User: What shape does this take?
Amino acid sequence: MRQFKTILSSILCSVIFLTFYACEDYLDKTPDSDLTEEQVFGNYSKFQGFVDLFYGDQRLIHYTQALTGSLDLGDDVGCNKNFPVTYNIPHGNYWWVWQNYHQNIFNQHDESIDKDKRSGIWTGGWYNIRRANMGLHFYDLLIDATDEERKLIRGQLYFFRAWNHFEIARSWGGLPYIDTYLKADDDMHLPRLSYHETLMRVIQDMDSAAACLPADWNETAQGAIALNSAVGRVTKGAALAVASRAYLYAASPLATKMRTGTAEYDHELLEKAAKVSWEVIELANQGVYELVPWSQYLENFASNKAGSNTIWTKELIWSRQKSGTGPTQIDNAMGRIHNSQRFGGNGVVTSATANMVDLYETATGYDINDAPAPDYDPLNPWAHRDPRLLTTILVDGVKWVEKDNNAAAYIQLYSAGGTSASGAGLDMDPGTTSGSITGFLIRKYIPYGVNNKDQKWAQYRFQIPFIRLAEIYLNYAEAVNELYGPKGVPPFAPLTAEDAINTIRRRVKLPVGEDITKPVELFTYGNESLPDVLPQYTATKELFRERIRNERSVELAYEGHRWFDLRRWYVAHLPEHKIRYKLIFDKNHTYFRKEVLFEGIFEEKHYWLPFNRNDVNQYEGFKQNPGWE
Assistant: This one.
């Protein structure tokens, strides 16, 4: 029988070369480098160069990977091809994670890719954990550095160790928490912790990171070191924000069910989630962060800001910096997932479901199922809705090519009544084999003019933030509502759960003279905001819980949250979240009919990804996730 020390051994063997790296040429050095550990880790600038690789393209996973990788996997999406992750996970084929190594955000392990450049949450995550432990192991060699510099290094190492454990754990559950720089002859029979224990270790490391990191790198003497910019570096706020999320996950009905057998919130952990969320909100109150004005909202996701080769706003707390522009960003990344081939995508389309569209309220604040007739017209269903709908999702009839005025310049997502062989619109299957299967497209990351006709893609950079300030208000609201109700004021902060949600909503401005055939970039917005949550939805904790969850889904749409949220709330197995719907309508909009797109497969075992069969059961302390044996 093949000898196998631990689930990590294959990963560890591939990263031992990291021990020796020069400063500027870390990516090019080989294990034959003659540099000593003292030379690499003894000087701040060289040590920071070692740390800088955590921020690099290969190791820091973004949530819309090139080649059809994505973390939008819940009831919010349907995919027109059967090979991407956005098809396989919703259909219950979790073994896909270990069978497809190319279009794989979880485990990119394609043999055609150099092993030192393979990525994915699993593959890149363990690599980063080992690298962080290596840095901490050699930390005492850092002599040529000020006290501030030493703290900056230590804080970043703690952050990345915790971040990567968290990213793996929220998909696979409890893990061995590796906090030691393991060598080939070490005992690697490391126990698998529970999910709760793993998250507590994440929080412990994030607390250590927060104690070392600055609120703003520009206020440190080293703020402009290495990449000549402090933009994107992890901060005290980033560490606290991850702790906020980790506490919320640990307090969730799913996590509590694993510990106690009952799917309910853990109030003690919710209190901690609320308190650390408030610490981040306090940083915003001090001017470190802000909810950017509605006119700048889309700059969180795509930007052509002059003089900048990155995307950064004061709303972003933790985000991977990606500077690439051009058609490949649309063909192989954002557009390959979100864009019709007719406008520059390459034929793989993950589109928004009718489930997701139905979550957007009316412009007057009603759930569409409760809205009075004047506020919601089922024959004009996208008009007079929460402005985030048209900011996030492309609907039929929007003019999408700036330079042309013919029919082909408009989005065509109707199901019948057109001139194609099937009568369907040119951006809709079966009108084409390279369009939407739901009647909608995702546009949050694709600005007007970024297409193969206007070709403005060279002007824009695209990203999906890891954490922005809006999420922290949502985390706070969820925790405080469960503890104190919608209007209760907690003892540690003056903000109610209702206040937190309304803070986000008041940022959203209503258009003047709305014309839904125009792209939102051409809308005129007034000073009137989306209304505060209506009183009928704040009468009880239970009613407001549903509005908080709805607000979270709408505000953070297609940022990689929905699948994780449905799982942690322990509702992903319910029929209303398994069945995905499409919207059927004709070219002239004389009827709209919601139909089942498909019923996803989600059983109890689907709350966690399975471990690779080749890796489990190699020693007593590590077992397969239940249901995947």
Notes: The chain has a mean pLDDT of 89.
